[in-house]
């Protein structure tokens, strides 16, 4: 069996847990927007301004789109003009601080000096938005929701961080995604306009998956079941037989992941991740999830045939003939048949990702991108 076939078996095994947890989960209470005080400034939710005129303050907020869905990975920059001093009557040069919004759309700037500030929010696919205000000494400024409008032009705006740096930050967010807090869910992006991964980042994500403790546990459990049921009897029993089964199963996962999710995507400039849709009708989301088994997003942001997935499944099936017993080796027809099964399993896995898995990933805020 190829890696793709086993992937759907693991996914299907989660279906029972997923349906139960999803049925028991209740929609979260949306956060209350900060109330405005006379003068148009939001009321502080933490503590009143300090009597010390130099006491630092904080600024925080949440970035959303026009539908109210949070925008992860938005670049937020706050610029402050230094306070006038005796030796600098015009104030110090402007000071800049930068941050990225998290998976829940939130950003936070601690220990900011008091004074006027300008806050600029940018994200791929959205028009930049700039706010301004005055931060008082010791004040905690909780800004109202910052809603970004869709850009009239998709021209990329360079705002200080390179594309590789943005992709690195977004990949770190993905590496924290675990279904039920345990099962790695690294190959799903909840940022629809996420920066493309370069070749090194694609290999990093593949290796991160292969050395994850859960991957080792799944391979070990699969090998144990195979030995108990007498599969691949030519491997024998005992520790030696178990070791051979474990090695073969791990080789399946390694070849499928390294070829289909790293090597070919790097060569063909394709993104190995599934981009969560989360909006639109259930029928449109169903079609989107199924279609993503045979199409993918290229590094140029355009959709194209998913050669990496198809060729990766075929290559992994062919390589498995090198280490499986002779009676279990397949011919060319079986290899292509397994590739077809792998594509179907990818479609099923995508459907779970689109409708169920997101609700079982505790590192994500339930108010995240898109609908239910």
Task: Write a brief caption for the model.
The chain folds into 2 domains: 3-26 and 157-360, no CATH class; 57-144, Carboxypeptidase-like, regulatory domain (Immunoglobulin-like, Sandwich). 38% of the residues lie in helices and 16% in strands. The protein has 9 helices and 14 strands.
Query: Main sheet?
Result: 4 strands, mixed
> Roughly what fraction of the amino acids lie in strands?
15-25%
Question: What percent of the residues sit in helical stretches (DSSP H or I)?
Answer: 25-40%
Given as residue ranges, the uncertain stretches (5+ residues, pLDDT < 50) are: 1-47, 154-158, 365-372
Structurally, the number of domains stands at 2
Inertia-based shape: elongated
CA(first)-CA(last) distance: 33 Å
Number of helices: 9
Helix and strand succession?
HHEEEEEEEEHEEEHHHEHEEHH
**Computed structural class:** alpha/beta
What's the total number of strands?
A: 14
Question: Overall mean pLDDT score?
Answer: 81
Give Rg in angstroms: 25 Å
Blueprint (SSEs and pairs):
Layout: H1 3-13, H2 15-24, E1 57-64, E2 75-80, E3 95-100, E4 106-112, E5 115-122, E6 129-135, E7 140-142, E8 146-147, H3 163-174, E9 178-179, E10 183-184, E11 188-189, H4 199-210, H5 213-228, H6 238-268, E12 274-275, H7 282-291, E13 295-297, E14 303-305, H8 307-320, H9 332-355
Helix pairs in contact: 1-9, 4-6, 5-6, 6-8, 7-9, 8-9
Structure description:
Helix 1 runs parallel beside helix 9 and helix 6 runs antiparallel to helix 8. The chain is elongated, with a radius of gyration of 25 Å. It is built from 9 helices and 14 strands. It is α/β, with parallel strands linked by helices. Strands 1, 4, 7 and 8 form a 4-stranded mixed beta sheet that branches. The protein has a 4-stranded antiparallel beta sheet with strand order 3-2-5-6, with no helix packed on it. A two-stranded antiparallel ribbon has the order 9-10. It folds into 2 domains: 228 residues, no CATH class; 88 residues, Carboxypeptidase-like, regulatory domain (Immunoglobulin-like). Helix content is 38%, strand content 16%. Strand 13 and strand 14 form a beta hairpin.
